[in-house]
Design brief:
Elements: H1 10-16, H2 57-69, E1 74-78, H3 81-89, E2 97-101, H4 106-115, E3 122-126, H5 131-137, E4 142-148, H6 160-169, E5 173-177, H7 182-185, H8 188-191, E6 195-199, E7 213-217, H9 220-233, H10 239-249, H11 252-272, E8 278-280, H12 290-296, E9 303-307, H13 311-320, E10 325-326, E11 336-338, H14 350-356, E12 362-366, H15 372-383
Parallel strand pairs: 2-3, 2-4, 4-5, 5-6, 10-11
Antiparallel strand pairs: 1-7, 6-7, 8-9, 9-12, 11-12
Helix pairs in contact: 1-2, 2-10, 13-15
Bound molecules: pyridoxal-5'-phosphate (PLP).
C-alpha cells in the first residue's frame, strides 16, 4: 500500500498500519529484525535504535498496528498478557487501590492477590456489571478500574462507557482487558477507557503459536511510563513473536467473522440440547448483559460456557470430543474446550469459584473456525 492507512477500514489497517514496505528491499512483510544491538555512527551519537530491549523495528510495526486497531495513540508489546498486565500495575504505588471485575482471568487474580499484595497494592473484587457497586468501591486511593468484559468464563458484561464516566469523575483511570472480543468487535478507548490490554496469545495472534501481550494507551502519561517499563523491566515481545502476531492480525477480521458464525450455530444447537442446564453467551437475548453488549460492541464473540450439572457430565464431554481439543487458552483457529474449575481458574479459591458460578459442571468452549458440521457432530456425540 502506498501512503498512510490511517482513516481506512479496520481490515486495511490490520494489514498495513505500521507495515509500510521495507524501504531498502520493498519487502511487503515487515522483516524480523533479529538483532540485540545496533551500530552507532560515532561515539556519543545515538540514532533511532540503540538496543533491542528499548526498541526494535519489528516490535515498532506491531505496536503501531495495534494502536491503530484499538483507536489508541500508542501501543506497547510485552512478552505475555500477564507481563502486559504487570506493566499496567507498575503505575501504582504501595497502598494505592484498584477496583477489578470480580470474574477476571485467574492469572490476574493470582498476580494481585499473591504477588502484588506483597507490595501493598490493594484490590477490590467487584461486580462491575453493577454501576453502584463500582461507585461504592472507589476510594480516595483508587488509581484504576480494571474491567474484563465479557468475563471468563461467566460472560459477565460491564458497561465500559458508563464505568469510564463515573471513574473519570473521581479522577480514576480505566483499563479494559479486551482479549475476549478483539478490537474487531469492541474498542474500549472509543467508549471512554484509557488503556486496553490484550493477551495477543488469543484472538490477535489467533493460531495458538505464540505468547504475548499488548497495552494500548490514549494518554501520553501512560504511553511514556509503559515505554520506560519496557526498558526498565524488560519483559518485551521478541521480534519473531511480533512477526507472528502481525501475521495473525492480517486475518483477524475474516477469522472473527467465521468464529462468530460458527458460535451462533453452536449456541443454537446447545440451546435446544436437553443435557445443557444453562448456557452463558452474551448473544442470547435473555443474557443479563445482552443490551449493553449490543450497544458497545459489534458482536458477541466466540466464547461460551455451558453448565452440565456435575463433574461427571462435564468429564464425559471433555473426554469424548474428537475435533475439539481439551486445552487451556482460547482464541485460536482450533476449537478449544476446557474445564475452568480445574484449569484456567484453579488459582481461584474454591469458595470464590462457587460464588461466581464456576462449578464442577461448567465447561467453556472457545469456538474455532473448523467446518461447522464437524463441530456440531462432535458436540452431538460428546453429549449423547
Ligand atoms: C482475558 C485474559 N487476559 C489475560 C490473560 C493472560 O495472557 P497470557 O497467557 O498471554 O499471559 C489471559 C490468558 O488466558 C486471558 O484469558
Amino acid at each position: 500500500m502506498k501512503g498512510n492507512p490511517s482513516g481506512r477500514g479496520f481490515a486495511t489497517r490490520a494489514i498495513h498500519a505500521g507495515q509500510a514496505p521495507d524501504p531498502r528491499t520493498g519487502a511487503v512483510a515487515v522483516p524480523i529484525y533479529q538483532t540485540s544491538t545496533y551500530v552507532q555512527p560515532e561515539a556519543g551519537v545515538t540514532v533511532e535504535y540503540d538496543y533491542a530491549r528499548v526498541r526494535n523495528p519489528t516490535r515498532d510495526a506491531l505496536e503501531q498496528c495495534v494502536a491503530s486497531l484499538e483507536s489508541g495513540a500508542a501501543g506497547h508489546a510485552f512478552s505475555s498478557g500477564m507481563a502486559a498486565i504487570s506493566a499496567l500495575l507498575t503505575t501504582m504505588r504501595s497502598d494505592e487501590h484498584i477496583v477489578v471485575s470480580r470474574n477476571v482471568y485467574g492469572g490476574t487474580f493470582r498476580l494481585l492477590e499473591q504477588v502484588l499484595d506483597r507490595y501493598r497494592l490493594r484490590a477490590s473484587w467487584v461486580d462491575t456489571t453493577d454501576l453502584d457497586a463500582v461507585r461504592d468501591a472507589i476510594e480516595d486511593g483508587t488509581r484504576w478500574v480494571l474491567l474484563e468484559t465479557p468475563t471468563n468464563p461467566m460472560m459477565e458484561i460491564s458497561d465500559v462507557a458508563a464505568v469510564s464516566e463515573l471513574a473519570h469523575e473521581r479522577g480514576v483511570h480505566v483499563a479494559v482487558d479486551n482479549t475476549f472480543l478483539s478490537p474487531y468487535l469492541q474498542r474500549p478507548i472509543e467508549l471512554g477507557a484509557d488503556v486496553v490490554v490484550h493477551s495477543t496469545t488469543k484472538f490477535m495472534g489467533g493460531h495458538s503459536d505464540s505468547i504475548g501481550g499488548v497495552l494500548i494507551t490514549r494518554l501520553e502519561e501512560h504511553a511514556s511510563w509503559f515505554r520506560f517499563i519496557q526498558k526498565s523491566v524488560g519483559a518485551v515481545l521478541a521480534p519473531f513473536e511480533c512477526f507472528l502476531v502481525m501475521r495473525g492480525l492480517k486475518t483477524l477480521a475474516v477469522r472473527m467473522d467465521r468464529h462468530e458464525q460458527n458460535t451462533a450455530r453452536i449456541v443454537e444447537f446447545l440451546t435446544r440440547h436437553p443435557a445443557v442446564r444453562k448456557l452463558y453467551y452474551p448473544g442470547l437475548p435473555d443474557a443479563p448483559g445482552h443490551s449493553v453488549q449490543k450497544k458497545q460492541a459489534s458482536g458477541f464473540g466466540a466464547l461460551l460456557s455451558l453448565e452440565l450439572g456435575s463433574f461427571a457430565a462435564a468429564k464425559k464431554l471433555l473426554d469424548r470430543v474428537e475435533v475439539m481439543s481439551l486445552a487451556e487458552s482460547l482464541g485460536g483457529v482450533e476449537t478449544l474446550i476446557s474445564h475452568p474449575a480445574s484449569m484456567t481458574h484453579a488459582a481461584v479459591p474454591a469458595e470464590r469459584r462457587a460464588a461466581l458460578g464456576i462449578t464442577e459442571g461448567l465447561v467453556r468452549i472457545s469456538v474455532g473456525i473448523e467446518t461447522i458440521d464437524d463441530l456440531l457432530g462432535d458436540l452431538e456425540q460428546g453429549l449423547s
